[in-house]
Amino acid sequence: MSQGRAAAREAAKPQDQGWAWMVLLAAVLLQGLTLGFPSCIGVFFKDLQHEFQASNSETSWFPSIMVAVLHGGGPLCSILVKRFGCRFAVMLGGLLSGVGMVSSSFCKSISQLYLTAGLITGLGSCFSFQAGVTVLGFYFVRWRTLANAMASTGVSLGFTLWPLLSQYLLDEMGWRNTFLIFGGILLNCCVCGAIMRPVQLASASPLHSPKPAEEPERRAEGAQLSNGPCSSHPKFQQQQTRRTACFQLLQKYLAFDIFCQNKGYQIYTIGVTWMMMGFALPHIYLVPYATQNGVEERRAALLISVIGFINIFIRPLTGLLSGLRFFTGRRIYLFSLAVFLCGLSNFICVISAEFRVLIIYCVILSIAMSGVGALTFQVLMDVVEMDRFSSALGLFTVLESIMLLIGPPLTGLLVDITSDFHYVFYNSSFFLISAALFMGLSFCTLEKK
């Protein structure tokens, strides 16, 4: 009898086995289609400038909005995941991404592009990507570190293939038809979402559904807050109810309570937020920088593909390395080291803009980026409980998105004023190196205390 119950419990747990690996494959494709997609925007930079007679700063708002919304839509994604599950969120995201890019092919001004490709496609990519990351945390326990690293290789595949495909289609069909085709490609996120069936416990309740115990706790909180001398007054009760509801929403979807109480999460969130001011700059400006310095357009697009290709092999190795018992509790230092190397590598571009020098830069940057990409979400899972991960991810990505939104346009404005692309790499190095030192030293101090 006990053997039968044990077998039933084992069958009800899909973690680390069976269908979990199909979900991992879907997550790989999702990350390539969503996080990898913005890597190709630099290929269209000059064409969009010429089409809409826009400056560097005006043109850079388009990828900035896309990437910022991709990272900043976390709270909305959390609501969708908690209410409808990961599968629905991923499929809705794929639909929005496809519609956004198809609409972009008909834009008549750069401001329309901000709405279609920037906001709509960015929001769709956010839903697909973040729900895909969340579902991995439920499907994998023992192999979670490896699963996150393997999933992040999808970003590398995207970095490799998107720029090459973009340059080919741009040469053959122009940017409008290329965006139309991209809309069809991004609809494949819906297929990936269909694979992510809800995880079932032995009690047949989805792992990512809200806990039944939460409701009595909320009532208790509401009773505590409304317990006072004026609690009998109807207006007072209404105000307290609204405040309680707002507090519960913030706690549930933005994890402000974790941010205030968990020092590790606080340090990591601030560090990564600061890092994002400089992290995206090379991906947006590397191709324009290379073409301005005499590199052929096809070869310039190849630079981004080199970064992605090397990442394909380095990210899984980083995941395996960080999964060793020795690094348990120390992954934040690996992450800080990777960010620090990213910052140092940018100085290579300042030395020379020759193609072979830029290839060396891309190789070094790619190795460092593999550590950042493979460890970002794993470190977050290390510092917060898994049942609050979706909420913690929401606040984490909202703060990231603010910096991702303002970083590239401000740097583009600086380039417009000075006509010197070197400031892109100076800025990037400053933010990356300072963020790495802050996180490493802060966690070291926290451990000593």
Automatic annotation (TrEMBL):
<keyword id="KW-0812">Transmembrane</keyword>
<dbReference type="GO" id="GO:0016323">
    <property type="term" value="C:basolateral plasma membrane"/>
</dbReference>
<feature type="transmembrane region" description="Helical">
    <location>
        <begin position="146"/>
        <end position="165"/>
    </location>
</feature>
<feature type="region of interest" description="Disordered">
    <location>
        <begin position="207"/>
        <end position="235"/>
    </location>
</feature>
<dbReference type="Pfam" id="PF07690">
    <property type="entry name" value="MFS_1"/>
</dbReference>
<protein>
    <submittedName>
        <fullName>MOT6 protein</fullName>
    </submittedName>
</protein>
<feature type="transmembrane region" description="Helical">
    <location>
        <begin position="88"/>
        <end position="106"/>
    </location>
</feature>
<keyword id="KW-1133">Transmembrane helix</keyword>
<feature type="transmembrane region" description="Helical">
    <location>
        <begin position="267"/>
        <end position="288"/>
    </location>
</feature>
<feature type="compositionally biased region" description="Basic and acidic residues">
    <location>
        <begin position="211"/>
        <end position="221"/>
    </location>
</feature>
<feature type="domain" description="Major facilitator superfamily (MFS) profile">
    <location>
        <begin position="20"/>
        <end position="449"/>
    </location>
</feature>
<feature type="transmembrane region" description="Helical">
    <location>
        <begin position="300"/>
        <end position="320"/>
    </location>
</feature>
<feature type="transmembrane region" description="Helical">
    <location>
        <begin position="332"/>
        <end position="352"/>
    </location>
</feature>
<feature type="transmembrane region" description="Helical">
    <location>
        <begin position="358"/>
        <end position="380"/>
    </location>
</feature>
<dbReference type="InterPro" id="IPR036259">
    <property type="entry name" value="MFS_trans_sf"/>
</dbReference>
<feature type="transmembrane region" description="Helical">
    <location>
        <begin position="61"/>
        <end position="81"/>
    </location>
</feature>
<feature type="transmembrane region" description="Helical">
    <location>
        <begin position="392"/>
        <end position="411"/>
    </location>
</feature>
<keyword id="KW-0472">Membrane</keyword>
<feature type="transmembrane region" description="Helical">
    <location>
        <begin position="423"/>
        <end position="446"/>
    </location>
</feature>
<feature type="transmembrane region" description="Helical">
    <location>
        <begin position="112"/>
        <end position="139"/>
    </location>
</feature>
<feature type="transmembrane region" description="Helical">
    <location>
        <begin position="177"/>
        <end position="196"/>
    </location>
</feature>
<dbReference type="GO" id="GO:0008028">
    <property type="term" value="F:monocarboxylic acid transmembrane transporter activity"/>
</dbReference>
<dbReference type="InterPro" id="IPR011701">
    <property type="entry name" value="MFS"/>
</dbReference>
<feature type="transmembrane region" description="Helical">
    <location>
        <begin position="21"/>
        <end position="45"/>
    </location>
</feature>
<dbReference type="InterPro" id="IPR020846">
    <property type="entry name" value="MFS_dom"/>
</dbReference>
<dbReference type="InterPro" id="IPR050327">
    <property type="entry name" value="Proton-linked_MCT"/>
</dbReference>
<feature type="compositionally biased region" description="Polar residues">
    <location>
        <begin position="224"/>
        <end position="235"/>
    </location>
</feature>
